[in-house]
Structures are given as C-alpha cells and as structure tokens.
Amino acid sequence: MILDSQIKANGIWFLTTAQTEMFMDSDEKIKTHLLSVWLEEKKLFTKSKECMLFVTNKGLYFVSKTEAKPQWWKSTVQRQIMMLIKDPDNTILTHDGYDEEDLALDLENEKNPRYKMSDVIQVDTEEKIWGTILVLKLRDGEKERKFHLSIVKDWVSYPAKSPMNFLRPNWAPVVQYIKSRTQS
Question: For the chain, what is the total number of helices (H) and then of strands (E)?
C-alpha cells in the first residue's frame, strides 16, 4: 500500500510516496472466519470484547474494528449460528461477502491484533458447563498472552453488551489446523 505524505524543505512542500507495512501477504488465504467470538484475555483488569476470528495459512487475527456493513454482519452471524447448531464439528468455515481484501482493509486499524503462526505457543480447547473454549497462548514481542475464545449465541444489550448464551462448537479442526501450520 502506498501512502502519500508531505515534506517541507526550504519553505517548499514536496509530495512524497512511502511504502507502508503490509499487514497480509499477497498469497495469504483465509482458512477460518468465525464471527461473534467473545475474546477474553486472561489478565488482570482486561476487558473482554466481541470480535471476528480469522485463521489464515500464515497467521491469526482478531478483528473487532471492521469496515463490514451492519446488515451483512447481522445476517451472517445468524447464518453462522444456524450452521454451528446443525453441525458443531464444522468450525472451518468462511463467509460470503468478506474476503482477503476486506481483511487487509480491517487490519490497517491498529486496534485489530495480528499474530504470525510462529507466535503460537500453545493451542487447546476447554469444555465448560456453558460452552466450549478455544485457548490460545501467543507470543507478543517479549510477552506471552493467553486468550480464551468462545462463540456467542445470544447477547444482552443493557446495561452493556454482554454474551448471554454460548455455542458448543468442536474446536478440534481449528486446533489441528493451527498445530499443523506451527509445526511446518
């Protein structure tokens, strides 16, 4: 992506172009795209949030700030819920109307964390009474961060948006895919 910037030299403004950091490789493909994911960092005083989980052939992305249209979001979340209720083993899925270009656009926002497959330290699942959790331990520079991810079925919106019910998807296909990419 090319960004234009202005530089002032001797009182004259010059327009220059600079190469910016690419957030995705051109050959990077979305393997899994899950919406309405409750992202919880296991750290004191951290706030949980709703996001989209992307697993590509080269990385993991948590997108909470998106350019996607609200109408697309609502209908796609409902379709995903129905698909996961019918077939909870089918967690390797993608959605129409959102592709690699949309993901690259969303990743321009610095608030959307991105991790390479080499940053994955541990990936596992946990079974809880209320649902299943994908547990990720990731390297973020010199620090290790631990995340719990679960897919939300219903939300309560007052006084603050919070999950009410969770789905019980089988995270095993996602875990196997991530492990296969981190070992190669």
Answer: 3, 10
Least Cα distance to 63 among 106, 102, 27, 95 occurs for 106
Give me the residues paired with residue 116 across strands.
Answer: 59
- The rounded distance, in Å, linking the Cα atoms of 17 and 20 is 9
Q: How many CB atoms lie within 10 A of CB 87?
A: 12
The predicted structure's pLDDT at residue 184: 63
Q: What CATH fold (topology level) applies to the domain 24-183?
A: PH-domain like (2.30.29)
Residue 76 in contact with residue 95, Cβ under 8 Å? yes
Q: Output the pTM of the full model.
A: 0.84
Question: What is the distance between the alpha carbons of residues 170 and 43, in angstroms, rounded to a whole number?
Answer: 25
For residue 45, the 8-state DSSP code is T
Q: Is 42 helix (H, G, I), strand (E, B) or coil?
A: coil
Which tokens sit at 13? 């403004």
